[in-house]
User: Fold these one by one.
Assistant:
Number 1:
Amino acid sequence: MENKTASIQVLGSGCPTCKKLFEITEKAVSDLGLGIKVEYINDVQKIISMGVMQSPVLAVNGKPALVGFTPDIEKIKKAIQDNL
Amino acid sequence: MDIFYPIKLLADWFTFSLFSITPQTLLADAVNFFIYDTIKIFILLTVIIFAVSVIRSFLPPEKIRFILSHKNKYTGNVIASLLGIITPFCSCSAIPLFLGFVQAGVPLGTTFSFLVASPMINEVALVLLLGMFGWKIALIYIVSGLIIAILSGIIIGKMKMENLVEPFVYENSINAKTDLPNMTWSDRFTYARDYTWDIIKKVWPYILIGIGVGAWIHGYVPADFLAQYAGSGKWYAVPLAVLIGIPLYSNAASIIPLVGALTEKGVSMGTTLAFMMAVTALSLPEFMILKRVMKTRLILIFAGIVGVGIMFTGYLFNWIL
């Protein structure tokens, strides 16, 4: 698999939109055939340390790629590809 | 020309033609009031929340924090309170905002100004105030709310309360500058659409209940019925309204349409304002959540200062209006 070192995380405060972003992101990653496991993190301090105060956050390689809202799957794919 | 006139016509048509209720009856009055207010409030909610969300996509909390970390004390309190207006606030965002601000070096007093203004002057409350009381009362509410937020923050800042914040908060420190991903216009609209929908989905039953009970009061409770209990001459009305308001935060959306009807029946305007401010700004669930990051004493001081500010506003407008 390529991108062995890449990481994709969804960080949330446990809100329903966070869960939704996580599910769509998992689907986006498998559609793209990236073979990366998407992590779901429920730790507010992690979000804060990333410099963000909203949730949900989609982070690619530790950097926020989408913040505060859940767009459609195409946008999520693009956000992942742009930041890998 | 009243821009809501077409809604009035529609409400009349529903009441008198579709439901064939005899005009000039109590029932007609209540039903007409309910339909008119419901349509008006939901149109206002959609338009205003959407607009505020688009504006907010340009000024997310991370940018606000960066602005605040560069301001001196007093300017910081003013700007924090102003920015609090456009930021949504639910008790679930209290912790991330508090940690994010304080750890990035925003002074405690400035952070509190923001924490007071943000829930007190929120877009749902604004829509309801505008719809139920008109723009003058809405403006009085905003301006008084801002003043309370600014002063509470300045006072807490002066009291040097940092030792009452849980020590772990200061163990992490972060850079105030965050490079957020760029948003396109279509992202902003997606965000605003989803946010507006989320809020409406959450508040609509409360609003309907509030307007429904309000409509019943409007139609069936005699005018001035409440004046003898809660008129402007009753000194205990304001503190009592504040105390009753504290546990009601989650029901703010039904409270405001309801109190709209209560003022018609003799509750004075200052008391009404104090009650609505207490409902939005002093929230029991928020206090419980804030216990994770600060000592109970600081929460009590914060609630006390804001509570006194609200009561002062209540007395002031009972006296003026």
Note: DSSP finds three helices and four strands in chain A.
Number 2:
Amino acid sequence: MSLQPMEEYFRDRIRLEAQGAEGMRATVTFTPDLQGPPEAGHGGGVTGMLFELVRLFLGERGGDVRVPRPVRIDAILHREAPLDVSLLATVVPMESGWLSRILRGDRPIAEAEVRPMAGPLTPPTSEVRRAWERSREGGHEVPGYEFCLACGLRNPRGIQVRFNYNDRLVWKRLLPQPHFRCEDGSLFPGYLCIVGDEIGWWLGALRQGECGLSNRVTVCLGAPVAHDVPLLILGERSAVTTADPKGRVWQTRAAIVTPDWQPAATAEVQFAGSRAFTKVMLPGFVPGGDRAAVERVFPASKAVGEVFESGALQAGGR
Amino acid sequence: MVWFWNGEGRRDGDGIDFLTADLAVANLEAASDLEVLTRHGFRAVVDASNRDGNPRYPGILYHDVPIADPDERLSEFLPGVVAFIDEARQLGPVLLHCVAGISRSPALAICYLHERHGMSLLAALDHIRSRRPVVAPHPLFLRVIQEYYLQRRLTPPEQLDLFPKGRRQGVGGNGQEDKR
């Protein structure tokens, strides 16, 4: 029941090759328990790893803060991070921050600019708070992939979060699992990256009614929080916007707050969805899944019925 | 033998009643409150409410015991409950709850105190009532529990008597299904 702490687990996936004042070079491997969709690293997990590389470069561990907070992590996810493949990772200082990159050969998989922020994080508005107080435990629950780092109920290393949603909000109250505790008792920052990306994905998917991917993830981390503080992750559906005339690329915003509404982190995700993604990803939601729950989220997709009706995918229920 | 933790009971006014340092009973309302769960350090919950839609918080382990009150199948769930609590105690205290915290969850607690703290069934029941006076397991549950342990033959029968002469058990039990 007890797992290796996630901070150590992330560090164990990194093999340091060289480090100096001018930068750091390493390899990083995403294991299957860090997957999002099958066969690829979770977008929030990749973002968390990009930040972890910076923490490693600066010698930060647990609550021994070396990267000033609040800090902004602007990640671009160029392509899926393959599992069980040793990838090149680099960190270099840049003006007022650090650039963290993960590459396969010379092709970038993901990169993030990490910069200290001048001001504090903005908490949710009182209007959003009131809306959530009215919603509390109601709404529907999104379906999930069984082994996903964020939503997989069969991934013991994961967060196992399945968000609630109604017409107004997407949210979840949760308590970080013990393995997300850093040695000093603070919450592993990667946790906030994972849930921040996950809620952004769902805000986008619910808006579009299709599956997709997060290709830009911005997470702003406040001061470290204790790992055993309950958190509320909250995003407003009306705040999901697009500048794409085809309505396939969406900007989402969410906050992760402590019970006194202090933001532990905020997350902005760019979600790109399409019918093609739905066709590819939908079978992942089926094993053990609730057909009605999947149809509510992806109402436009006729593939839902087809996939559920194909008996081959019914195995493996939770 | 040290039966159970050293007897310092805790009652904190939020509906959580600790039976030992790492085992508590509550009603559904208290068990549904994440702040209450967190304040007491619960990382694992046994849910015997037999209701769909109870809040489930990521970060807390849940074990369902889908039984009505009463339900003679109680004994089918006992090995699983004991095993779950044994394992979950590594993470922190474990909360047992049903709807009211009167019948089903205390019945399960009797079994755990008996198996892991060496208490007779009656001593376990008395101990639970001393911590949570509203407790009144349905008489059918008590009979099922007594029969279950008699059949296992691991404990002297005198430690399994839940219906001693001159004492009526299952106060409040009316032999009909209710929502406790």
Note: The beta strands of chain B are 17-20, 23-26, 44-47, 61-64, 94-97.
